[in-house]
Design goal:
Layout: H1 2-23, H2 31-63, E1 80-86, H3 92-98, E2 107-113, H4 118-135, E3 139-142, H5 150-162, E4 168-172, H6 184-190, E5 196-205, H7 213-218, H8 220-235, E6 245-248, H9 249-254, H10 265-275, E7 279-290, H11 296-323, H12 329-339, H13 341-358, H14 370-382, H15 386-394, H16 402-411, H17 416-427, E8 432-433, H18 448-466, H19 474-484, H20 486-492, H21 499-509, E9 518-519
Parallel strand pairs: 1-2, 1-4, 2-3, 5-7
Antiparallel strand pairs: 4-6, 5-6, 8-9
Length: 523
């Protein structure tokens, strides 16, 4: 598919440039107007790469037949670990479900608690002790002496303390939940290939009684992410999603473990393993649950984290990926498509400002074909949705999916400003310390949402006054609407907190508990 993508991009670029040249014939463009036109053209052709990627991924998914799992026949049963991580966000149902995994060989459940709140630490102690009594299993509870390096540092500490006990381990976030019996034999079958370092399981949305209506609709995006993972596993770069995956202890340690302080530690580990000749495989028949972020503010924190982490990976691994003989063209292209997404979001925000707030003052006298703009604006909206539509169609869930489509379009399209901040902070090497995405918000109003809303108002208001032809594009309302909906979404997208959550929010208001991203003091 890599060659089809590149050919499509080249053909589109040639046709589009010819169209622009013809449409500007007879106009005397100033030097600045010419510069704006060149800038916009480069961005629009570059953005079409993602449009073609979405479209071809949707087609490939519909045409793809997922093979039936083969029965596992193991000659021996190596020891396996289950690594559960929490940090002031213990999920009772998740850790209890993991304690119920069955396996013929030796199984070790390790709970690592990074909690800073005394109440949260006591909660973990009580749950672990109750599980020990109920299951009669030896459950290890670890707490590292220094909480440095975020999640990667925690995983490295657990491996340092317990890695000698197991050959493979299941890496779990706080919300990783066993939805159905997991046959570990089937997982270990993949490791019979000596080059396989990670077996990524399929993530399924866990229905939570605390979900608000908006989050219940958004949670289906977790299921739909399967489309991108399975297509990439066949036609692109096979990535590790950071949780709900089985890893080879030996290969992870051989690669140097996880990189402390990296926000996209999963992508970093995957590419370092690839550069050593190891691979990641996707096992969609092995399903584990996870939860969608509990609020709009948590969702935006996650976007910031992913944007920051993606730039970290690009800065440190891009050249190695480009020059590596271990990766095919398709894998390299898929790697940059995935890690470059948030950088492109930041660039597109600047593009919107130029197109709607600057360009109208320089193209006021130009005329455009309303019909052509109507068609072009509709196509821009259309290319966003083929992956979701194809997933729901293949899964037989098209009926009733409209609400999820609308919410995913709004919510996943709104956090452009957190993406810009993440990209900017990483480029300028601003150190950040990350607290878990699923932590509840402190409840203080996010004033940046008002700035985003004002930006959406300007996107429509400036063209309306200076150059109404821009509003012939249907995507104008789609793009501006994403920013205009930021404040309503912050009110509607907020799960009902538990009693423990209320206590944590109270501590946060008292200044005793930080639930967001904070600046790390310079040494």
């Amino acid at each position: 598919m890599a060659y089809i993508l590149l050919c499509s991009l080249a053909v589109f670029g040639v046709v589009y440039v010819r169209h622009l040249l013809r449409s500007t014939e007879g106009f005397e463009l100033t030097f600045l107007a010419q510069g704006l036109l060149v800038f916009k053209t480069i961005i629009e052709i570059g953005a079409s790469f993602y449009g073609f990627t979405f479209l071809y991924s949707a087609i490939a998914y519909l045409a793809m037949k997922e093979p039936a799992p083969k029965p596992a026949r193991l000659r021996e049963y190596p020891p396996v670990g289950i690594m559960y991580l929490c940090c002031n966000d213990l999920d009772h149902s998740a850790v209890e479900s993991l304690a119920g995994i069955k396996y013929r060989g030796k199984l070790h459940l390790i709970v690592h608690d990074d909690s800073s709140l005394p109440e949260a630490r006591s909660e973990v102690d009580a749950v672990v002790e109750a599980l020990r009594r109920r299951t009669h299993s030896k459950i290890l509870l670890l707490r590292r002496p220094r909480r440095d390096g975020g999640k990667p540092g925690a995983v490295n500490y657990v491996l340092e303390q317990t890695g000698h006990l197991y050959d493979y381990f299941l890496l779990c976030d706080n919300d990783s939940t066993l939805l159905e019996p997991v046959n570990i034999d089937e997982v270990l079958r993949y490791f019979e290939d000596q080059k396989v370092a990670i077996v990524q399981c399929r993530s399924i949305a866990v229905d939570s009684p605390n979900y608000c209506v908006v989050n219940r609709l958004l949670s289906l995006s977790i299921d739909a992410f399967h489309l991108f993972v399975v297509v990439c596993s066949k036609l692109g770069w096979r990535r590790f999603n950071g949780h709900n995956a089985f890893l080879s202890t030996r290969m992870v340690l051989e690669a140097g473990g996880f990189t402390p302080g990296y926000f996209s530690d999963d992508l970093d580990l995957a590419i370092r393993l690839n550069l050593k000749g190891y691979s990641v495989v996707y096992a969609p028949e092995i399903r584990l649950g996870e939860k969608h972020p509990p609020s709009y503010s948590a969702f935006r924190r996650r976007t910031y984290k992913w944007a920051y982490g993606s730039v970290q990976i690009l800065r440190t691994r891009a050249w190695a990926v480009l020059t590596s003989p271990c990766l095919s063209l398709a894998e390299k292209l898929s790697f940059f498509q995935y890690t470059g997404l948030y950088v492109c979001q930041a660039i597109l925000l600047f593009y919107l400002a130029v197109t709607f707030l600057v360009e109208p003052f320089f193209l006021e006298g130009h005329q455009f074909n309303p019909t052509a703009r109507l068609i072009a604006g509709s196509v821009i909206i259309f290319v966003v949705y083929p992956p979701l539509l194809s997933y729901f169609a293949k899964e037989g869930k098209l009926k009733g999916c409209l609400g999820s489509l609308i919410m995913c379009g709004l919510v996943y399209g709104t956090p452009s400003f957190p993406s810009v901040r993440g990209v900017y902070d990483c480029l300028w090497k601003r150190p950040r310390e990350w607290t878990p995405t699923n932590a509840l918000s402190h409840g203080r109003p996010d004033l940046s949402l008002w700035g985003e809303t004002l930006f959406g108002v300007f996107l429509l208001g400036v063209p309306l006054i200076t150059f109404p032809a821009l509003l012939y594009l249907p995507n104008s309302y789609f793009l501006a609407g994403r920013f205009l909906s930021a404040i309503p979404l912050s009110r509607l997208y907020r799960d009902r907190p538990t009693a423990v959550g209320h206590a944590r929010v109270g501590l946060a208001k008292a200044g005793l508990y930080d639930l967001g991203i904070r600046r790390v003091p310079s040494p």
